[in-house]
Amino acid sequence: MKWLKWFNIFKGMAMGIVETVPGVSSSTIAMLIGIYENIIQSINDLTTKQYRKALLFLFPIVLGILLGAIISAFTVEYLLENHPIPTHFLFMGLILGMLPFIWRSGHLLQGNNCSYKKYHFVVMTLFFLLIASLSFVVSLDETVIVDLTVTDYFYLFFSGWLASIALVLPGMSGALILMIVGAYYTALSALRTLDIPVILTVVAGVIIGILITGKLVRFMLQKYRRSTYAAIIGLLCGSIVILYPGFPAQLTELIISLLLLLIGFFFALTVSSKQKSETDVEEKGDFPE
């Protein structure tokens, strides 16, 4: 029934609301509300004869994501402008709370020889150092690109492309990726002010990224699952270094920041624990590296 498809707009809004929050994965939310597998299948069907059916399913979800992101942008931007340090501690807690889910997702539980190997920890370390080193060049200042040039639009398009990984990979946060590459505040401001050219540019990057990069991500998960998730774990741990704003000088703000860190941690931990990892089900064949 078509009205059931349009009801998905509200599920899309749930994904969009968290999409503006670094550390929370919209794809994990999609798994929790039971539409993740349908989204992935519909994305694959866009290049087949089933594209019309896929579009009917995806359109209300995408519309809901945009509406949810616009609504959420006002709150997130207000918090970042007026309470930056406590807000960043909240983001850090959310990331820490997602790490156990990411670990389980790459750590096959059945059979023999299923644990992470030494070279997986090398991968984690390399990606941690790579992302953490960006803290020397990435600023947490709320820099919004104005008077955009053609180069800026290409940059935003590519940023959206990278952020699209979060829509096909549970545990990854699109907002966090945008923050790492320095496009987060520009995208957030565009949502709040309804800057259509910027929104369309980022969305176009996301769509192209899903269609192209999504296939690569799925290939990596099928062939090199643990190595892929090892890289993600390193990336998330390194992003905490980027997000860390330093301890606040005032005791009250310090207490609030630490409380928000704990709230974010336990919220993400609770949400992710409700979604049984794909690796917790019995699989046949060889275990991917």
TrEMBL record:
Full protein name: DUF368 domain-containing protein
Q: Where are the transmembrane segments?
A: 12-33, 54-76, 88-109, 121-140, 198-217, 229-247, 253-271
Q: From which source organism is this entry?
A: Salicibibacter halophilus
> What is the organism lineage in this UniProt record?
Bacteria, Bacillati, Bacillota, Bacilli, Bacillales
Arranged from A to Z, the UniProt key words for this protein are: Membrane, Transmembrane, Transmembrane helix
What's the superkingdom here? Bacteria
Record's keyword annotation contains Transmembrane helix: yes
Q: Has the keyword Transmembrane helix been applied to this entry?
A: yes
